[in-house]
Amino acid sequence: MRRRQTLVGLTIALALVGLLVYGVGWQEVLALLSEAKPQYVAGAVLAGGGILLVRGLVLERLLRPVAGAPRGVAFAVPFLAGYFARSVLPWGRSTGAPVMAFLLAANSDAEPEDTLAAISLAEVFAFLASIIIALAGGLLYLDIDLLRTEETASTVVYSLSVGILAGLIVAGTVVGLTRDGYVRRLMTRGARGLDSLLHGRPRVRTPDPVSRRLENFLRTLGTVGAARRTLVVAFALALSSWFINVLPLYFAFLALGIEGGFALALLCAPLASFGGILPLPGGTGGIETVLVSLLVTVGGLSLESATASALLFRLSTYWLHVTVCGAGAWYLSIRGKRTITV
């Protein structure tokens, strides 16, 4: 990976978080964090590690129908290294996926497009699961009558509507790709056109036609899509991962002595991920800002309490994942036998 660009991105992201804390009042935020109850902080960290474990299980399950896919340690270490790329690259869900696919393929007998197909499905499952968890949180929040104002109710309804619409679009795209229909034919024609355009160009080396890679990718999607039991188990695991993803925020409330409630965490944790649209590593800066906004407008928390909760949540999830997965990337780079360096 390009270390300089990655470091620049991380610096900008951290600067945005610093501006958020400074604008809210850094002394008040640090005072709240210094009084956090250690047992709940430990619970948040354990839950953060559980997220990573279950997300790995989702991908491992989706790779089972793929011939030559990695297993055991040959899967775990490249997965961690690829997740590190996903976490530190801008727009990591899209830019980190090819890196993870290449690392998994380099440590197995599968092709990169095969592993990329499984990774793409895992990302879609995670996104749809986040929408379901947020919807459940919104309904629970409404049901226990925590919405005291019309403005707060409007915020919840609007946020859930955007999430549901995005989920429907993603689900429709997946159906179009996994079934042999118009979308797949259109993509195949486009890839063949690109092959023709690149053919004969002196500065472009094409050892494998783009269309062949795309056909392999779509074929693998079809293979995995035909394994119904695999899909059901993988989606159940994706739902579990997002349920666990809620726990660090809930533990942050408990650690700071904030009356946030589990329903608020269930609603806000998945919706905050929409802040990841910013082209910064792990959506850092954007996710914190969205989460603080939701906690203030929906939960009625003070700015200081919301910011402290968001920081503790991100430390026990994103920054924990960067640390653990960075160790995996380092190990793979110096000890791997069938790897590329990252």
From TrEMBL:
GO terms for cellular component: plasma membrane. Keywords: Cell membrane, Membrane, Transmembrane, Transmembrane helix. InterPro entries: L-PG_synthase/AglD. This is Flippase-like domain-containing protein. Signal peptide: none annotated. It is a multi-pass membrane protein. NCBIfam families: flippase-like domain (TIGR00374). It is found in: Cell membrane. Belongs to the UPF0104 family. The chain crosses the membrane at residues 39-58, 124-144, 156-177, 226-244, 250-278, 290-312, 318-334.
